[in-house]
Amino acid sequence: MRQSTNQLTVIGKLKRKEVKFGTTTNGDNTITVDLVVTSEFENKVHENKIRLWSKESSKLYKGYETVAREYKTEEEHGAECADRVKVTGNLEMNEYVSKTDGELKTLNNLRGVFIERVTNPEVKDEVGAAVECVVLGYVDEVSKTGSPTGRKKVTLYTVGYNNSISELQNVFVGADVAQQFTRLYQPNTTGRLFLKVNNYVEVEEAAQAAQPMTLGFGVTLDNMPSDNVVRNYVNEVVIIGGDVPNVANKYTLEEIAEMKKLRELARQEKMAVSPQPPAQPAAPSGFGNGFDTSDFSGAIEESEIPFF
Questions:
Q1: I need a labelling partner for 281 at 20 to 30 A (CA). Which of 41, 56, 58, 273 fits?
Q2: For 131-163, what is each residue's pLDDT tens digit?
Q3: How many angstroms separate the CA atoms of 228 and 208, rounded?
């Protein structure tokens, strides 16, 4: 099955980097550089994690070593000295079984391939992708109050390296283009879509202020966090445009059926090797039921990374 075209671009300030050197099962030396890039646009600060990975035999390796040695981050050098970067790569899906609860986690994954510094101040921050997709279907998005928002939630597939099928998560088409999109992209239609990746925190004051607690003894701290602040974490992919559907080189119904089989097979294989979550001793509880606050990692397995 042919690989879909997939072009991701992230431009922003380098907030953090973590470098790891290792070896493959064949004994090849590798480098992994995990980046956090902040991009500011539309009055929002978007923070995205991007992984760079290469074997020493690849032409990318020396470039990643340069990133590891020389690129300046906000955490290490401050906001004024941190490098602005442009990372290009692919927008894909990362699916893994959590070691803490044994459940299958599916997330969008920004995989980097090339990286360079951006010195031109006129180049604007952005996080977006042009991806060839098969649109499987869509439904109306409904607000918390039960009324339609005008947006539609879209299910789509894209074909990656070695017939890997990515089902991008939290994909929506905006209300301003939803009618044109549904007219052009009937279910099982192939085409290149232009996607904006949103990953930011909305902070607003609560509609009703919390009642202040009565101090029991002593004094309080000067800079306690406000109980009136509401944080909404937005992590979504928004379709903002697209080409006319590709009729000449579309994925056939037989190929789409094969995509669904491969997608389900990959899910079953991951669940089959699901690690058993370690038993955790029960922590003393004040009353009632708490929340599961265990963390999980979205790490990519080395075997899933193409050898550039």
A1: 273
A2: 999 999 999 999 989 999 999 999 999 999 999
A3: 8
